[in-house]
Amino acid sequence: MGKTSIEWTDASWNPVVGCTEVSPGCANCYAARLAGARLKNHPDYNGLVIPGTQRNSIESAKRGPRRLARWSGQVRFLPHRLEEPLCWRRPRRIFVCDMGDLFHESVPDEFLASVFRVMSRARHHTFQVLTKRAARMKQFVSSVKQWQGFHTHNGEPPEGYGGHGQILGSQWPLPNVWLGVSVENQHFADERIPLLSETPAAVRFLSCEPLLGSLNLQWFSGIHWVIAGGESGAGARPMHPDWARGLRDQCRAARVPFFFKQWGEYIYDFQMEHPSTVTAPSSCFKVGKKKAGRLLDGREWNEFPAVP
Q1: Are 225 and 259 in contact (CB under 8 A)?
Q2: Which of 58, 107, 154, 247 is a good FRET partner for 74, with 20 to 30 A between their CA atoms?
Q3: What is the 3-state secondary structure (H, E, C) of the chain?
Q4: End-to-end alpha-carbon separation of the chain, Å?
């Protein structure tokens, strides 16, 4: 089982690793940092990241800010990890591909089919699939039924699985698979959420992290869960409290469960225990993820979608 400290899941499963940047939310990717640091000598991750520079404050003053680790553009699919969830007996919420994007354009349909086949067999788990490639996800998931099982675009079944209907069972979409998209600002909310709304899924969710601006979600339909959070780590950008409050209030009005993950590295002056004399919310301070915490207006928001 892949251990994880992510608050809204229990474990991670990475049959696909590696990625490429597609939007501003990717700029400080935590997965690239992790792959380039703690996992850099692991054979599954070797070569996936362009390392960043490591400088202290004195060196940065002389030579400029340090460069963050970036994905190299390689994407690797790992057949030896495919059946890991089948060995985990205790039911878990499993984040699929927190070290990559399952629906990356480099991942062939055949491998996607294999991943979905495992999820269909492991019905005691709940799988949380999050992507920035909403169009690819919609296309793949919407086409599966037409393939009479897991057939690829040319009508041929994935190698080794025969393309028979029993791979899917009688239920589609799979009741234990939640599909979500990342949205960091209004532009990508407008682009990705309509595609998600049209994608067959038992649960559709949004991850608004890092939240880089206010979002208006009120005209979207078919969303069952919203996660929000600020950015952490090197190069983090601050999140204004009103952006998080706005999402929370929209979710409450629409009766959609809301999960507030974290403030990230920064909090504003008026959020501090002993605020200064500043009266306008114009000053923010880098205090670190742990100290900033995850209380929004005095409470934790740990809501999850109700599922059968």
Answers
A1: yes
A2: 154
A3: CECCCCCCCCEEECCEEECCCCCHHHCCCHHHHHHHCCCCCCCCCCCCEECCCCCCHHHHHHHCCCCCCEECCCCEECHHHCCHHHHCCCCCEEEECCCECCCCCCCCHHHHHHHHHHHHHCCCCEEEEEECCHHHHHHHHHHCHHHCCCCCCCCCCCCCCCCCHHHCCCCCCCCCEEEEEECCCHHHHHHHHHHHHCCCCCEEEEEECCCCCCCCCCCCCCCCEEEEECCCCCCCCCCCHHHHHHHHHHHHHHCCCEEEEECCCEEEHHHCCCCCCCCCCCCEEECCHHHHCCCECCECCECCCCCC
A4: 25
pLDDT lower than 50: segments of the chain: 55-61, 147-156, 158-167, 277-281
CA–chain centroid gap for 224, Å, is 15
What's the longest Cα–Cα distance across the chain? 69
pLDDT confidence of residue 167 = 47
Task: State yes or no: cis peptide before 91, omega within 30 of 0.
Answer: no
pTM of the model: 0.87
Residues 6+ apart with CB under 8 A from 224: 178, 203, 204, 205, 256, 257, 305
Residue 273 has a CB neighbour count (10 Å cut-off) of 4
Identify the burial level of 42 via C-beta atoms within 10 angstroms of its C-beta, where 0-12 means exposed, 13-18 middle and 19 or more buried: exposed
Residue with tokens 């940092």: 33
Q: Which residues, including other chains, have CB under 8 Å from residue 145's CB and lie 6 or more apart?
A: 172, 200
| pLDDT tens for each residue of 135-152 | 999 999 987 655 444 444
Give the residue among 302, 279, 306, 113 at the shortest CA–CA distance from 202. 306
Q: How far apart are CA 288 and CA 264, in angstroms?
A: 7
Residue 4 token pair: 């994880």
Closest listed residue to residue 93, CA positions, set 26, 1, 211, 171: 1
